[in-house]
Write a structure and sequence with these properties.
Belongs to the 'phage' integrase family. Keywords: DNA integration, DNA recombination, DNA-binding. InterPro entries: CB (IPR044068), DNA_brk_join_enz (IPR011010), Integrase-like_cat_sf (IPR013762), Integrase_catalytic (IPR002104), Integrase_integron-type (IPR011946), Integrase_recombinase_N (IPR010998), Integrase_SAM-like_N (IPR004107), Tyrosine_recombinase_XerCD (IPR050090). It is a single chain. With 313 residues, the protein is mainly alpha-helical. It has two domains: 76 residues, Orthogonal Bundle (DNA polymerase, domain 1), CATH 1.10.150; 193 residues, Intergrase catalytic core (hpI Integrase, Chain A), CATH 1.10.443.10. 49% of the residues lie in helices and 4% in strands. The strands form two sheets. Strands 1-2-3 form a three-stranded antiparallel β-sheet. Strands 4-5 form a two-stranded antiparallel ribbon. Strand 2 and strand 3 form a beta hairpin. Helix 2 crosses helix 4. The longest helix has 20 residues. The chain is globular, with a radius of gyration of 23 Å. It starts with a helix and ends in a 14-residue tail after the last helix. The model has no long low-confidence stretch (mean pLDDT 88).
């Protein structure tokens, strides 16, 4: 497991992915009688994945994550290429349309929030960013003069730019100023260093303490980094917003399930509804394929779905 962890960090996988992969590898080892993976092969991996689908009834995405973890173990750590596993019983991938709030519901939801939770939720709805893209936002990537935000290392390792709502400029400036004061306090106490991606910490030794690299939404307390044990200030925990959204949904009387990703779905749908070109929306969302963005046209009942029932004529 230490070898797997070291390889994951060498390949710059996130801490979340590291925990997920280690968890699946551990489950695989336990399910096969604690035998060393080197003595196992494609048949055992097939059986494990099929059990997840048949007995565990997991979602297709969960089964794919387990498969990715085991492929990483065998290819990257053990140096073994598994045969193509045609006998795996695959979990069925459901075709669902995303949950989208109406404009009125979005405003009612935001009205029930305040402080940092309101600002984070407003940014998600106003920019279309994913939750972790918003939480990991660095000070240097906010351009108030051009009213835009640069998303670094988004899904698929891609950078992109998205719009910064003018109505959020002043509240965000105040939040950044609070982060600056917190950073100054950390510097006085001998801290103030932030985690940097890839090898930037070695290439630019002083960058980790520079103001521009700090998180725009820092955590209230410093914590120890599980990768190297350093005490530093991370970004705010995503559970803070999740709990706030749950309370706000109940207070606003919204029956639909609401998560941070619901706000991203609502941004995309309302942009297309306002007449913006789907390619523009694709770029703002950071979708690799326009087909992914087109799902929001189904939410609007455009195309073949935009018919009038004969009962209503």
């Amino acid at each position: 497991m230490d070898e797997v962890r070291a390889r994951l960090r060498l390949k710059h996988y996130s801490v979340r992915t590291e925990r997920a992969y280690l968890g699946w590898i551990r489950r695989f080892i336990l399910a096969t009688g604690k035998r060393h993976p080197r003595t196992l092969g494609g048949e055992e991996v097939e059986a494990f994945l099929s059990t997840l689908a048949v007995q565990g009834q997991v979602a297709a995405s969960t089964q794919n994550q387990a498969l990715s973890a085991l492929l990483f173990l065998y290819k990257e750590v053990l140096g073994i290429n598994l045969p193509w596993m045609e006998g795996v019983v695959r979990a069925k991938r459901p075709q669902r349309v995303p949950t989208v709030l109406s404009r009125d519901e979005a405003q009612r939801l935001l009205a029930q929030l305040d402080g940092r939770a309101w600002l984070l939720a407003s940014l998600l709805y106003g920019t279309g960013m994913r939750l972790m893209e918003c939480l990991r936002l660095r000070v240097k990537d906010i351009d108030f003069a051009r009213n835009e935000v640069t998303v670094r290392n988004g899904k698929g390792g891609k950078d992109r730019r998205t719009v910064l709502p003018r109505s959020l400029a002043e509240p965000l400036k105040r939040e950044v100023e609070r982060a600056r004061l917190l950073h100054q306090e950390d510097l006085l106490l001998g801290y103030g260093s932030v985690w940097l991606p890839f090898a930037l910490a070695r290439k630019y030794p002083n960058a980790a303490r520079e103001w521009g690299w700090q998180y725009a939404f820092p955590a209230a307390q410093r914590s120890f980094d599980p990768r190297d044990g350093s005490e530093r200030r991370h970004h705010v925990d995503d559970a803070v917003l999740s709990r706030a959204l749950k309370r706000a949904r109940l207070c606003a009387g919204i029956e639909k399930p609401v998560s941070a990703h619901t706000l991203r779905h609502s941004f995309a749908t309302h942009m297309i509804e306002a007449g913006y070109d789907i390619r523009t929306v694709q770029e703002l969302l950071g979708h690799k394929d326009v087909a992914t963005t087109q799902i929001y046209t189904h939410v609007l009942n455009r195309g073949a779905g935009g018919v009038v029932s004969p009962l209503d004529r």
